[in-house]
Design brief:
The chain has 233 residues and is an alpha/beta fold. It has one domain: TIM Barrel. 35% of the residues lie in helices and 18% in strands. Bound molecules: D-xylitol-5-phosphate and zinc ion. Zinc ion binds next to strand 2.
Length: 233
Protein backbone atom coordinates (compact mmCIF):
# COMPACT_ATOMS: atom_id res chain seq x y z
CA UNK A 1 0.00 0.00 0.00
CA UNK A 2 1.38 3.35 -1.04
CA UNK A 3 0.36 6.64 0.55
CA UNK A 4 1.14 9.68 -1.60
CA UNK A 5 0.44 13.11 -0.08
CA UNK A 6 -0.33 15.69 -2.77
CA UNK A 7 1.81 18.78 -2.49
CA UNK A 8 -1.06 20.83 -3.92
CA UNK A 9 -2.53 20.97 -0.40
CA UNK A 10 0.77 21.95 1.24
CA UNK A 11 1.94 25.45 2.12
CA UNK A 12 3.30 26.88 -1.19
CA UNK A 13 5.37 29.39 0.76
CA UNK A 14 7.65 26.64 2.05
CA UNK A 15 7.57 23.70 -0.33
CA UNK A 16 10.97 22.31 0.68
CA UNK A 17 9.92 22.08 4.32
CA UNK A 18 6.60 20.54 3.37
CA UNK A 19 8.29 17.86 1.24
CA UNK A 20 10.60 17.03 4.09
CA UNK A 21 7.67 16.98 6.50
CA UNK A 22 5.87 14.45 4.26
CA UNK A 23 8.96 12.24 4.19
CA UNK A 24 9.43 12.38 7.95
CA UNK A 25 5.74 11.65 8.43
CA UNK A 26 6.09 8.31 6.63
CA UNK A 27 4.84 9.06 3.10
CA UNK A 28 5.89 6.68 0.31
CA UNK A 29 5.60 9.08 -2.64
CA UNK A 30 5.19 12.78 -3.08
CA UNK A 31 2.44 13.50 -5.63
CA UNK A 32 3.07 16.61 -7.73
CA UNK A 33 0.12 18.06 -9.65
CA UNK A 34 1.07 19.96 -12.78
CA UNK A 35 -1.75 22.13 -14.13
CA UNK A 36 -1.45 24.22 -17.28
CA UNK A 37 -4.56 26.42 -17.17
CA UNK A 38 -5.80 24.74 -20.37
CA UNK A 39 -6.33 21.01 -19.79
CA UNK A 40 -7.68 22.06 -16.40
CA UNK A 41 -8.88 25.50 -15.24
CA UNK A 42 -6.03 26.08 -12.81
CA UNK A 43 -2.26 26.61 -12.77
CA UNK A 44 0.15 25.06 -10.29
CA UNK A 45 3.90 24.81 -10.86
CA UNK A 46 6.52 23.46 -13.26
CA UNK A 47 9.81 21.51 -13.45
CA UNK A 48 11.69 24.09 -11.38
CA UNK A 49 9.83 23.02 -8.25
CA UNK A 50 10.83 19.39 -8.85
CA UNK A 51 14.44 20.45 -9.40
CA UNK A 52 14.44 22.27 -6.07
CA UNK A 53 12.78 19.40 -4.18
CA UNK A 54 14.89 16.59 -5.65
CA UNK A 55 17.95 17.09 -3.42
CA UNK A 56 15.79 17.77 -0.37
CA UNK A 57 13.97 14.42 -0.19
CA UNK A 58 14.52 10.77 -1.02
CA UNK A 59 10.79 10.33 -1.61
CA UNK A 60 9.66 8.92 -4.96
CA UNK A 61 8.46 11.96 -6.92
CA UNK A 62 5.44 11.28 -9.09
CA UNK A 63 4.42 13.98 -11.52
CA UNK A 64 0.76 14.07 -12.58
CA UNK A 65 0.57 16.08 -15.79
CA UNK A 66 -2.82 17.71 -16.25
CA UNK A 67 -1.61 19.44 -19.38
CA UNK A 68 -2.74 19.69 -23.00
CA UNK A 69 0.82 19.46 -24.34
CA UNK A 70 2.77 17.21 -21.97
CA UNK A 71 5.24 16.38 -24.76
CA UNK A 72 7.02 19.70 -24.17
CA UNK A 73 7.33 19.00 -20.43
CA UNK A 74 8.49 15.37 -20.28
CA UNK A 75 12.22 15.99 -20.82
CA UNK A 76 12.32 19.01 -18.45
CA UNK A 77 10.59 17.04 -15.68
CA UNK A 78 12.84 14.03 -16.28
CA UNK A 79 15.93 16.23 -16.01
CA UNK A 80 14.54 17.91 -12.93
CA UNK A 81 14.38 14.55 -11.14
CA UNK A 82 10.85 13.16 -11.52
CA UNK A 83 10.63 9.39 -10.91
CA UNK A 84 7.34 8.82 -12.70
CA UNK A 85 5.33 10.89 -15.14
CA UNK A 86 1.62 10.34 -15.62
CA UNK A 87 -0.27 11.63 -18.66
CA UNK A 88 -4.00 11.63 -19.36
CA UNK A 89 -5.72 9.17 -21.68
CA UNK A 90 -8.05 12.02 -22.77
CA UNK A 91 -5.19 13.26 -24.99
CA UNK A 92 -6.28 10.61 -27.50
CA UNK A 93 -4.01 9.86 -30.44
CA UNK A 94 -0.94 11.24 -28.69
CA UNK A 95 -1.10 8.82 -25.77
CA UNK A 96 0.93 5.98 -27.26
CA UNK A 97 3.81 8.28 -28.23
CA UNK A 98 3.73 9.98 -24.83
CA UNK A 99 4.00 6.67 -22.97
CA UNK A 100 6.95 5.61 -25.13
CA UNK A 101 8.61 8.97 -24.61
CA UNK A 102 8.36 8.65 -20.82
CA UNK A 103 9.83 5.15 -20.99
CA UNK A 104 12.64 6.29 -23.27
CA UNK A 105 13.54 8.94 -20.71
CA UNK A 106 14.10 6.12 -18.22
CA UNK A 107 11.13 7.01 -16.04
CA UNK A 108 8.18 5.05 -14.69
CA UNK A 109 5.07 5.38 -16.85
CA UNK A 110 1.65 6.45 -15.58
CA UNK A 111 -1.68 6.84 -17.34
CA UNK A 112 -4.58 8.82 -15.84
CA UNK A 113 -8.30 8.76 -16.61
CA UNK A 114 -10.90 11.38 -15.72
CA UNK A 115 -14.26 10.52 -14.13
CA UNK A 116 -16.41 11.04 -17.26
CA UNK A 117 -14.13 8.95 -19.51
CA UNK A 118 -15.11 5.30 -20.02
CA UNK A 119 -12.58 2.90 -18.50
CA UNK A 120 -12.36 0.88 -21.74
CA UNK A 121 -10.25 3.66 -23.27
CA UNK A 122 -7.23 2.69 -21.15
CA UNK A 123 -7.35 -1.00 -22.04
CA UNK A 124 -5.02 -0.85 -25.09
CA UNK A 125 -2.27 0.70 -22.94
CA UNK A 126 -2.29 -1.56 -19.90
CA UNK A 127 0.80 -3.53 -20.92
CA UNK A 128 2.83 -0.33 -21.32
CA UNK A 129 2.20 1.24 -17.94
CA UNK A 130 3.50 1.00 -14.38
CA UNK A 131 0.53 2.81 -12.90
CA UNK A 132 -3.10 3.52 -13.75
CA UNK A 133 -4.38 6.69 -12.08
CA UNK A 134 -8.15 6.67 -11.70
CA UNK A 135 -9.28 10.21 -11.00
CA UNK A 136 -11.96 10.24 -8.34
CA UNK A 137 -12.77 13.94 -8.84
CA UNK A 138 -12.68 16.10 -11.96
CA UNK A 139 -9.09 17.37 -11.99
CA UNK A 140 -8.10 20.97 -11.39
CA UNK A 141 -8.60 21.65 -7.72
CA UNK A 142 -7.92 20.08 -4.37
CA UNK A 143 -10.60 19.71 -1.74
CA UNK A 144 -13.42 18.42 -3.94
CA UNK A 145 -15.79 15.64 -2.87
CA UNK A 146 -15.07 12.06 -3.98
CA UNK A 147 -17.19 10.84 -6.93
CA UNK A 148 -18.54 7.46 -5.87
CA UNK A 149 -19.42 6.44 -9.44
CA UNK A 150 -15.68 5.94 -10.10
CA UNK A 151 -15.55 2.84 -7.86
CA UNK A 152 -16.52 0.33 -10.60
CA UNK A 153 -13.59 1.62 -12.70
CA UNK A 154 -11.20 0.63 -9.92
CA UNK A 155 -12.80 -2.79 -9.79
CA UNK A 156 -12.47 -3.17 -13.57
CA UNK A 157 -8.80 -2.13 -13.46
CA UNK A 158 -8.18 -4.76 -10.80
CA UNK A 159 -9.97 -7.48 -12.81
CA UNK A 160 -7.93 -6.68 -15.94
CA UNK A 161 -4.72 -6.72 -13.94
CA UNK A 162 -5.54 -10.12 -12.54
CA UNK A 163 -6.81 -11.65 -15.79
CA UNK A 164 -3.90 -10.36 -17.88
CA UNK A 165 -1.31 -11.11 -15.15
CA UNK A 166 -0.10 -7.51 -15.22
CA UNK A 167 1.39 -5.60 -12.33
CA UNK A 168 0.53 -1.92 -12.79
CA UNK A 169 -0.39 -0.08 -9.62
CA UNK A 170 -3.96 1.20 -9.28
CA UNK A 171 -3.92 4.73 -7.91
CA UNK A 172 -6.82 6.92 -6.82
CA UNK A 173 -6.65 10.70 -6.68
CA UNK A 174 -9.22 13.25 -5.55
CA UNK A 175 -11.36 13.47 -2.43
CA UNK A 176 -9.39 10.68 -0.75
CA UNK A 177 -9.91 10.75 3.01
CA UNK A 178 -10.00 7.99 5.63
CA UNK A 179 -13.45 6.78 4.56
CA UNK A 180 -13.05 7.00 0.77
CA UNK A 181 -9.54 5.49 0.88
CA UNK A 182 -10.98 2.39 2.52
CA UNK A 183 -13.76 2.22 -0.10
CA UNK A 184 -11.19 2.40 -2.88
CA UNK A 185 -9.00 -0.24 -1.23
CA UNK A 186 -11.96 -2.59 -1.09
CA UNK A 187 -12.48 -2.05 -4.83
CA UNK A 188 -8.83 -2.86 -5.59
CA UNK A 189 -6.81 0.37 -5.31
CA UNK A 190 -3.33 0.06 -3.81
CA UNK A 191 -1.97 3.61 -4.18
CA UNK A 192 -3.67 6.57 -2.51
CA UNK A 193 -3.12 10.23 -3.34
CA UNK A 194 -4.48 12.60 -0.74
CA UNK A 195 -4.08 16.35 -0.46
CA UNK A 196 -6.45 18.02 1.97
CA UNK A 197 -7.30 14.63 3.52
CA UNK A 198 -3.74 14.43 4.88
CA UNK A 199 -2.29 17.96 4.96
CA UNK A 200 -5.54 19.19 6.50
CA UNK A 201 -5.01 17.05 9.61
CA UNK A 202 -3.27 18.37 12.69
CA UNK A 203 -0.59 15.68 12.56
CA UNK A 204 0.50 14.55 9.11
CA UNK A 205 2.31 11.61 10.65
CA UNK A 206 -0.75 10.31 12.49
CA UNK A 207 -2.91 10.92 9.43
CA UNK A 208 -0.64 8.86 7.16
CA UNK A 209 -0.42 6.12 9.77
CA UNK A 210 -4.19 6.01 10.12
CA UNK A 211 -4.83 5.99 6.37
CA UNK A 212 -2.29 3.19 5.90
CA UNK A 213 -3.90 1.12 8.61
CA UNK A 214 -7.40 1.64 7.19
CA UNK A 215 -6.49 0.70 3.62
CA UNK A 216 -4.54 -2.34 4.77
CA UNK A 217 -7.43 -3.70 6.75
CA UNK A 218 -9.97 -2.74 4.06
CA UNK A 219 -8.14 -4.62 1.35
CA UNK A 220 -10.19 -7.60 0.15
CA UNK A 221 -7.23 -9.97 0.51
CA UNK A 222 -3.57 -10.14 -0.32
CA UNK A 223 -2.62 -9.45 -3.92
CA UNK A 224 -1.64 -13.12 -4.36
CA UNK A 225 -4.92 -14.48 -3.23
CA UNK A 226 -6.77 -12.01 -5.46
CA UNK A 227 -5.14 -13.65 -8.41
CA UNK A 228 -6.92 -16.88 -7.66
CA UNK A 229 -10.13 -15.56 -6.15
CA UNK A 230 -13.01 -14.20 -8.20
CA UNK A 231 -13.55 -10.68 -6.93
CA UNK A 232 -16.93 -9.09 -6.51
CA UNK A 233 -17.68 -5.55 -5.43
C1 LIG B 1 -6.81 17.17 -8.44
C2 LIG B 1 -5.40 16.68 -8.25
C3 LIG B 1 -5.21 15.98 -6.96
C4 LIG B 1 -5.42 16.87 -5.76
C5 LIG B 1 -6.16 16.06 -4.77
O1 LIG B 1 -6.90 17.81 -9.64
O2 LIG B 1 -5.01 15.79 -9.28
O3 LIG B 1 -3.95 15.32 -6.87
O4 LIG B 1 -4.21 17.32 -5.18
O5 LIG B 1 -6.54 16.86 -3.74
P1 LIG B 1 -7.56 16.40 -2.63
O6 LIG B 1 -6.96 15.16 -1.99
O7 LIG B 1 -7.63 17.57 -1.73
O8 LIG B 1 -8.84 16.08 -3.32
ZN1 LIG C 1 -3.04 14.48 -8.96
Amino acid sequence: MIIAPSLLAANFGRLEKEALRAEQAGADYLHLDIMDGHFVPNISFGPEVVRVLRPVTKLFLEVHLMCSRPEILLAPFAQAGADRMTVHVELGEQVNALLWKIKSLGKKVGLAINPPTAIGVVQPFLEQIDLLLIMTVNPGFGGQPFIVETLPKIQQAQVWRRDKSLDYRIEVDGGINFATAAECARAGADTFVSGTGLFGQRSLKLAIKRMRKLVKSARPASRDSQLSTAYQL
